[in-house]
Design goal:
Elements (H helix, E strand, L loop, with lengths): L1 E6 L6 H10 L9 E6 L4 H7 L5 E5 L6 H6 L3 H9 L4 E4 L12 E4 L11 H4 L3 H21 L2 E4 L2 H10 L4 E4 L26 E5 L11 H12 L5 E5 L16 E3 L8 H6 L3 E4 L9 H7 L4 E4 L2 H7 L3 E4 L4 H13 L1 H14 L6 H16 L1
Helix pairs in contact: 8-12, 10-13
Length: 371
């Protein structure tokens, strides 16, 4: 069978590592022919596929324009489908905006469309709610227009998506860490953090509104007030311009900017705690990454987070700076508790589909829907 793997719309975020992980498994399916369309942000993935005879790679950035959204057409992609007699299309994560004329399986990772009770929304002003209302409507339209089937990384999200699109079948295949974490020789180690005698917390994420990184300013102030002798720093993978920090607490933040996913394993080895303040999520790979690297997790006490981390995380009230500060302090100072979280994380990893299982399941779905 001939399948098209659409990664042309991926620019930043966890979708990049998922696309790389899945495409790196295509060598295991020589019975099929794959046309893989990669955005410019996946150049390293292109190199991995260069020697595979049953894989053809194209570079293309899907335009994000009104005409594509309205019509669902893209000449370049349509020509690939017809020219290679493609039987089905997999878009790693949508909305693709493009609507292929063959069965189309789209990944869904926009929890903002289905978790409307999140603190992310309840804390908004009236004008912000209006803005996000239309943001959801546009993306909901784009998903509904372009995809015949969906897959999500969380059974909780799958149920919500089935309610949103009642006539579309939704599959669940969990996320996992990228296989580079199992290959130390492939780790990039260009970022070396300065020596520090305190606790280092790592947050691997872009600066998205729903990640709620602004809470860190209050967290640091709480820690300084309640535990003045406790030294802590937060390593953040975005730029300081995105989140200005007051001068009196500036020393508690290390902004290293955007990092390649191959740099992440080395960063985890240099840190003590993985901190993720997200308010709304389908899945974040930082959870299994921290479990794989044996780092305790501190994250929000919300349903999606508990469903993914189980007993492997210390949870705090999602919008309470003091609660977050107390959770960090507990994990940093109670070594027995931290070790138990790490041990629980090793067990929790077994609940996820690993990168080989994810690839197997996605290809099996393609085989099914193409028939």
């Amino acid at each position: 069978m001939n399948y098209l793997i659409n990664c042309s719309n991926l620019k930043i975020g966890g979708g990049i590592q998922v696309a790389d992980s899945f495409c790196s498994q295509l060598y295991r399916f020589p019975q099929h022919h794959f046309v893989v369309v990669l955005s410019s942000n996946l150049s390293s993935t292109k190199e991995k596929l260069a020697e595979l005879q049953h894989v053809e790679v194209c570079s293309y950035n899907m335009p994000n324009n009104l005409m594509t959204i309205i019509t669902g057409r893209d000449r370049f992609m349509d020509n690939l489908v017809s020219g290679h007699c493609v039987d089905a299309v997999l878009t790693i994560f949508g909305p693709s905006r493009w609507c292929p004329k063959v069965p189309h399986l789209s990944g869904f990772a926009m929890a903002q469309l289905v978790i409307l009770e999140s603190p992310f929304y309840t804390r908004m002003t009236k004008m912000e709610r209006i803005k996000w209302f239309w943001w959801r409507k546009i993306r909901q339209y784009s998903f509904k227009q372009s995809a015949d089937f969906f897959w999500t990384e969380n059974p909780f999200i799958s149920k919500r998506l089935e309610n949103l699109f009642g006539n579309r079948e939704v599959f669940t295949i969990t996320n996992y860490y990228n296989q580079v974490f199992d290959t130390p020789d492939a780790w990039q180690k260009s970022i070396i953090l300065s020596e520090f005698t305190g606790t280092t917390c790592l947050s691997v994420s872009n600066f998205y509104p729903h990640k709620n990184f602004e809470i860190l300013i209050g967290v640091v102030r709480c820690l300084k007030t309640n535990h003045p002798d406790f030294l802590v720093r937060f390593v953040l993978t975005f730029d300081q311009q995105e989140m200005p920090v007051p001068d009196d607490i500036r020393e508690a933040f290390v902004f290293i900017g955007k990092v390649d996913f191959r740099e992440c394993p080395s960063l985890y080895t240099q840190c003590d705690i993985m901190f993720m303040p997200t308010l709304i999520e389908c899945f974040t790979a930082t959870y299994p990454e921290a479990m794989r690297m044996k780092k305790p997790i501190v994250t929000t006490d919300l349903q999606f987070a508990r469903g993914l981390c189980g007993e492997a995380a210390c949870y705090y009230n999602a919008v309470d700076c003091q609660s977050a500060a107390d959770a960090i302090y507990r994990v940093a100072t109670d070594q027995a508790y931290a070790r138990q979280l790490v041990a629980n994380g090793t067990v929790q990893l077994k609940h996820f589909d690993n990168y080989e299982q994810r690839a197997d399941k996605l290809v099996k779905i393609l085989e099914r829907i193409s028939k």
